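Please, structure for the following, as tokens.
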Amino acid sequence: MHWYSLLAIYALFWVLSAFLVMPFGLRTPDEVEGHEIGKGHATSAPVNFRPKRVALRATLLAIVLCGGYYENYVHQWITLDDLNFFGKPPVKDLGY
């Protein structure tokens, strides 16, 4: 596998990880005592969003996922044949 292919796969895992870890630890104004909702502020919007923390968590999770993907690529623990749940497709006779 080329290094740039691994880098692209890591980037995909990072974006997926960012969306997975983003909601953890967020609090709405209703959950935080003493926080006033400002004019134009949605009641469902988080008041303690920390993008650096989300990026750190996404980076760590992406490293683990990409590492697992690469190890599977090297050792072939799970192959396409393992994921074929329906058997081989029937061969159609085209009558040539």
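The radius of gyration is 22 Å. The chain is about 45% helix and 0% strand.
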